[in-house]
Specification:
Blueprint lengths: L4 H67 L2 H7 L7 H18 L2 E8 L4 E4 L11 H9 L6 H7 L4 E3 L9 H4 L9 E9 L7 E10 L1 H13 L3 H4 L8 E5 L6 E4 L9 H5 L2 H9 L2 E3 L3 E3 L2 E9 L11 E7 H52 L14 H42 L4 H17 L4 H30 L7 E4 H11 L1 H6 L2 E6 L4 E4 L1 H18 L4 E10 L2 E7 L7 H5 L16 H11 L3 E6 L6 E8 L9
Parallel strand pairs: 13-15
Antiparallel strand pairs: 1-2, 1-5, 3-4, 4-5, 6-7, 6-11, 8-10, 9-10, 10-11, 12-14, 15-16, 16-18, 17-18
Length: 641
């Protein structure tokens, strides 16, 4: 078994591929179990923190833009125009638009329009869920003078502002009961409204109070998406979560645990090292820490600062170390499983390649044995384009050449044998000359002696000589034609005219047999030996007429396709039996009671010399014979164009 080529290939692959691959797998597993996976997880944390901070900044920018667009709305300016008290005409439509904006956008709790004196002009009356605002809340907003609010002062001075207003006195439990409600955290945006009379002097302020749930939702979405699920396993829920600190990098203003709202990280939670890290850097990993009994890794990223139009918040995102360890173990198991699968595939693939490689060699061996046994029909199936395929093609070409050579040799031997036989037969036809000679001597003696039977002897002698000479001439011609000693003399002739001449020669015989001759199609001109083709046609027409002793219809059809001319002779004779089909072109085989049996053999020889083909078979299942000749037309001269 070890001596087989396929086995050697498998062992070579195992030695050259499997052993190094196993070593590489062990090295990768060691790296994954060490610093590699931890580094990937930590870098991923940093990336997630940056992404979350970017989304928070985008949210703030988009809401600020909403207030800027309201400040530029003409309806707001018209509502602020106090001339003749006509501002009331625009207030109601403006408040309806505020209601639609708040309920559809679900981003703001309050939208206020305050004039330059700090008096409320218009406001919404529904919240972000479409519910009517509490009357007590509306009373607070409507009776308040805003001239002392920092955001009003800044906006009236011409500067838009974003105010990080947590526990805002205009909204929620703090405003009504004085008790803080974590979800009452807000962010306010204020933008000046410029008048038409004096474009440099604001006529009022648009103020929007952001609903804090949309900020918290951004953080909650991190937990819902669970960005580490693909890292630790798609079917495993990770412990990852995010939070948001104020610009002091110490006060929690958003967290999945609502009880931590307002807690100070250093003092209340006891993690001053996290505060120090976030103050010292803009975007980095926290030091590893423990919270509620779990070792954690986390990263932070500062949002846009105040001077850049942001609020200076700090975004954080973390995960338990146990989840990262679980991910590493899962990766190790996955690596080992993949290694086993790869090794199995390598071995199976090697076996397949070995089999596909050795199979042509085995086929070549079997083919060689068949050729050695004399079977020159042996061929090997060729697949692919590699060296083995080329070897198979060479083998097939060799056997084809050997087969062709053997066929040519056999043919040459047969022809030589028939030529020799023809010469012998031609020599032997001299035998009929003996009775001719004796008859002429008898005739001479009768003449010299004045025999009274001279006339009768003369008549018999002449009849004998005429009959024997005719037979000898026909036999000599048949054998001479079969020997094929005359060189090919090709010329450009009309097939249709040649067929016509031959049919004229056979017309009397056809009329005597009551055979109707029908011509179909045209063959045009062809480069051929006219004498040889005429000899073939005479032979085929004669055979057809002789087979139709009881009359009938003889069809002669000529056609031309591409570079070949086809001539068909179809009779309604008795047809061919199985023996005749197998020996049609064998010399000296005949179904007639007379003749040499060389007619069709001569036809085959002449057609072969003209590079054509001849086929003879049954015309139908019941009767008749069909003879078909196909000859190359040759290069058409000007007469054919």
């Amino acid at each position: 078994m070890i001596r087989r080529l396929s086995t050697k290939w498998v062992l070579a692959v195992l030695a050259a591929v499997v052993v190094p691959f196993l070593s590489f797998t062990w090295f990768v597993d060691a790296q994954l179990s060490g610093r590699l996976s931890w580094n990937v997880a930590r870098h991923y944390l940093v990336s997630l923190a940056g992404d979350l901070a970017g989304r928070i900044d985008d949210l703030i920018d988009e809401r600020r833009l909403d207030i800027e667009l309201w400040a530029e709305d003409p309806l707001v300016e018209w509502a602020l125009d106090t001339q003749d008290g006509e501002e009331a005409v625009f207030i109601r439509p403006l408040e309806k638009r505020f209601d639609r904006f708040v309920s559809r956008g679900r981003s703001f709790d309050l939208l206020l329009v305050v004039n330059a004196d700090g008096e409320l002009v218009a406001h919404n009356s529904v919240d972000h869920l479409g519910a009517r605002l509490d009357p007590a809340q509306l009373s607070i907003c409507e009776n308040k003078n805003y001239s002392g609010e920092p955001w009003f002062i800044m906006a009236l001075a011409g500067d838009g502002s974003a105010i990080d207003q947590h526990l805002n006195p205009l909204r929620g439990g703090a405003a009504l009961s004085g008790e803080p409600d974590p979800m009452d955290y807000r962010v306010g945006f204020a933008e000046p409204v410029w008048g038409e009379d004096d474009p440099t002097l604001p006529v009022g302020v648009v103020y929007g109070l952001l609903n804090w749930s949309i900020v918290q939702n951004e953080l909650d979405e991190v937990g819902e998406r669970d960005p580490f699920s693909g890292f630790i396993g798609a079917d495993v829920k990770s412990s990852s979560y995010s939070w948001l600190w104020r610009d002091d990098a110490n006060t929690i203003i958003a967290h999945k645990d609502r009880n931590l709202y307002g807690k100070r990280v250093a003092e209340d939670i006891g993690l001053p090292q996290l505060v120090e890290s976030s103050i010292d850097g803009d975007w980095a990993l926290f030091p590893e820490y423990e919270f509620r009994g779990n070792e954690k890794n986390a990263a932070f990223k500062h949002c846009a600062e105040w001077e850049d139009g942001g609020l200076g918040w700090v975004v954080g995102i973390g995960i338990n170390n146990d989840d990262i360890s679980a991910a590493i173990e899962e990766l190790s198991r996955l690596l080992l499983s993949a290694t086993a699968v790869v090794l199995l595939l390598v071995i199976l693939w090697t076996l397949l390649i070995a089999r596909r490689t050795t199979q042509p060699i085995l086929a070549l061996e079997q083919g060689t044995r068949r050729v050695a046994a004399g079977d020159l029909d042996a061929r090997i199936e060729v697949t692919g384009q590699d060296e083995l395929a080329e070897l198979a093609r060479a083998f097939n070409q060799m056997t084809a050449d050997l087969q062709t050579s053997r066929q040519a040799l056999v043919k040459a031997e047969k022809e030589a044998a028939w030529k020799e036989m023809a010469q012998q037969v031609a020599h032997e036809i001299k035998n009929p000359l003996t009775p001719i000679l004796l008859s002429t001597k008898l005739l001479r003696r009768a003449h010299d002696e004045g025999s009274p039977e001279f006339e009768s002897i003369l008549s018999r002698t002449l009849e004998l000589v005429e009959r024997q000479v005719g037979n000898m001439r026909q036999i000599a011609k048949d054998f001479s034609d079969f020997a094929g000693t005359r060189a090919l003399n090709s010329e450009w002739v009309s097939v249709d005219e040649l067929i016509g001449r031959v049919l004229e020669l056979e017309a009397a015989w056809a009329g005597e047999l009551e055979v109707r001759v029908v011509r179909e199609g045209e063959g045009g001109h062809i480069m051929v030996d006219a004498d040889r083709l005429q000899r073939v046609l005479i032979n085929l027409f004669s055979n057809a007429l002789e087979a139709m002793g009881g009359g009938g219809t003889l069809v002669v059809r000529a056609s031309r396709e591409a570079d070949a001319v086809t001539i068909e002779v179809l009779d309604e004779g008795s047809g061919l039996d199985e023996t005749a089909k197998e020996h049609l072109f064998v010399p000296h085989f005949t179904t007639k009671s007379h003749g040499t049996g060389l007619g069709l053999a001569i036809c085959k020889r002449l057609v072969d010399e003209m590079s054509g083909t001849i086929e003879i078979g049954p015309r139908s299942e019941t009767q008749g014979t069909k003879a078909q000749i196909v000859l190359p037309a040759g290069k058409s001269p000007e007469i054919d164009s």
